[in-house]
Amino acid sequence: MEFAVLAQCFEALEGTSSRRNLVQLVTTLFRQVEHPEEIQQICYLMQGRVAPLFMPLEMGMAEKAVLQALAQASSHSLEQITERYATLGDLGLVAAQIQGETEQPIQKVSVNEVFTVLQTIAQTAGKGAIEKKRVLLVGLLDHVDGESAKYSVRIVLGKLRLGIGDATILDALAITKWNDAKKRKLLEGVYHVTSDLGLIARTLWEHPEAEEAQRAIASLDIAVGRPIHSQLAERLPTAEAIIEKMGSVVAQYKYDGFRVQIHKNGQQIAIFSRNLENLTDMFPEILEATRTQVQAEQAILDGEALAYNATSEEFLPFQETTRRRRKHGVALMAQELPLKAFVFDILYKDGASLLEYPLEERLKVLEETIPQTRNTLMVTRSHLVDDAKSLTLLFDEAISKGLEGLVVKRWGSHYEAGARNYNWVKIKRHAAGALDDTIDGVLLGYLFGRGKRAALGAGALLVGVYDARQDRFVTVTKIGTGLSDEQWGSIRERTKGLPTDRQPARVFSLITPSVWLKPAIVIEVLADEITRSPNHTAGKVGDEPGYALRFPRLIAFRDRDKQPEDATTVEEVIEMYQRQGKR
Ligand code: ATP
């Protein structure tokens, strides 16, 4: 396939205002693809990458280098290019404009050729890398049309935001392959275990016959080095409700740090976030501890990393731990603020998947695998509980130790990748008057205010949640009061490049903000109550009102560990609404 065809599809996706069209456009594109390798490349490119999300393969080109490449590829000076950038605000658009003016003949360039150049840019490292990357980009820009240049540049800068989610791509794959959108569920299950859209697409294309393809997909399994989607927790209001619903449970302390999935393959260790990001280089002490403490050649562990002072038995607050999420000065920070990893599950050991093992058996394997526990890797203590009183005591104990609460797990349950169900339930302490949990909302737009706020660029934020069934974002609140000037500044900084002149295709809102934002930034919001509101679209069916947050306040930014699709879902909001009265 010519890359220009893919670029045209990207252009159409950007201009679309409905999710159904998104799926249709992607399906039409996929139908034109013949080769397994090509479909794999296209899936990665659609995610703005040249490898699956979890591979730490970044382009490593700053804006300045791209500006220079654009100047070199055109007959313009760096100043002229910089000026155009100031006007257009997007280097992709600058690239398209320049290509439109050039008299150079445009050549037919295939998806594979562009992918290979982009991949080489990403892989180029070491001495002289900046120069080499620039030469590669200039070489590419010399040959392609305007649209192709636009999207190549956006991918290089890590700024391709097509507004399609994984679910859209999975839908399109299911329709292309089986003419059946319902088969998305099958693909989704495999995606949760493999986290690699390219691999799934490639496997489908390698097996032209429908049933054969289904078998091949079903055989894709957990593998060391490839993160699986984390099991997530539901909420219940009280210890009584938990015992009533779950029966015998395994209760563990709830640690407030980073979720870490640790993969050991001999001496090679990798660490992934719940967002599938590769964090391996950030936590040298956990790498070292995994090498020495884990009694297995191969293992996949699930846990939470946080700063803990073993002498005073103090758990440091999340704000402290979060200082370790950095790419530079890692060694120094590791000394200043060493982390412990509290390991609460094991998903794989020496060639065998443990996902289908009942919880108690996995925990037994975990103890055997990390026998010496008071170290950097600490096996989380599990308490078997079957009455509400003991559970409450344990909860109080957790709170008194400065922890967030408990995670309670169903006896006998399997590990379900990516699922949020009543196999795991979290109970947290909550502030008086507040809901029993915070909400992870997605920024969908700004509403301009008056006076001082207007000068800062915003008066209120339009915030949504994720409607997982329909794969779209719906509104749940506006946040205005209570935001500090610092928070406003931070919001402006984080939303750079996200404003868009039309309502994004996967956003459903009755409120029109002054500026729409592409859904990307996840914020943690605490509210007093959930109420019904005709103005908001979360959970809105027909003429019935939707659900809205009362007295919302911004607690923290979560965009580093959550994708917009990881935000709180409509279903969760409705459950929280129904639970309110019962607390
Ligand atoms: P979620 O992960 O459910 O989307 P969240 O990121 O806001 O929500 P919490 O509401 O704090 O996180 O609760 C779940 C998280 O708690 C898990 O993802 C994990 O990172 C953390 N956690 C801490 N201790 C445990 C434990 N013992 N078992 C499972 N998870 C734990």
| Derived structural class | alpha+beta
Described by its quaternary structure, the protein is single chain
**Global geometry:** globular
Mean pLDDT: 91
The largest sheet, given as strand count, sense and whether it forms a barrel, is: 8 strands, mixed
List segments where confidence is low: pLDDT < 50 over at least 5 consecutive residues. Answer: none
Number of strands: 22
How many helices in DSSP terms? 22
Give the bound compounds: adenosine-5'-triphosphate
State the share of residues found in helices, binned by percent: 25-40%
Give the class-level CATH name of the domain at 232-428.
Answer: Alpha Beta
Radius of gyration: 25 Å
Beta-strand content bin: 15-25%
User: What is the CA-CA span between the terminal residues?
Assistant: 58 Å
**Can you name the CATH architecture of the domain at 232-428?**
2-Layer Sandwich
Looking at CATH, the homologous superfamily of the domain at 232-428 is DNA ligase/mRNA capping enzyme
> Per CATH, what is the topology of the domain at 232-428?
D-amino Acid Aminotransferase, Chain A, domain 1
Q: Can you give a write-up of this model?
A:
With 583 residues, this protein is an alpha+beta fold. Among the domains are: 232-428, 2-Layer Sandwich (D-amino Acid Aminotransferase, Chain A, domain 1), CATH 3.30.470; 439-582, OB fold (Dihydrolipoamide Acetyltransferase, E2P), CATH 2.40.50.140. It is 39% helix and 21% strand. It is built from 22 helices and 22 strands. The strands form four sheets. Strands 13, 14, 15, 16, 17, 18, 19 and 22 form an eight-stranded mixed β-sheet that branches. Strands 3, 4, 5, 6, 7, 8 and 9 form a seven-stranded mixed β-sheet that branches. Strands 1-12-11-2-10 form a five-stranded mixed β-sheet, covered by helices on one side. Strand 5 (298-309) and strand 6 (314-315) form a beta hairpin. Helix 1 crosses helix 9, helix 2 (19-31) crosses helix 10 (166-178) and helix 4 runs parallel beside helix 6. The radius of gyration is 25 Å and the shape is globular. The mean pLDDT is 91. Adenosine-5'-triphosphate is lined by residues 230, 232-233, 252, 254-255, 259, 274, 304, 344, 380, 407, 426, 440. Keywords: ATP-binding, Cell cycle, Cell division, DNA damage, DNA recombination, DNA repair, DNA replication, Ligase, Magnesium, Metal-binding, Nucleotide-binding. It catalyses: ATP + (deoxyribonucleotide)n-3'-hydroxyl + 5'-phospho-(deoxyribonucleotide)m = (deoxyribonucleotide)n+m + AMP + diphosphate. One of its GO terms (molecular function) is DNA binding. ATP binds at residues 259, 274, 304, 344, 420, 426. It comes from Ktedonobacter racemifer DSM 44963.
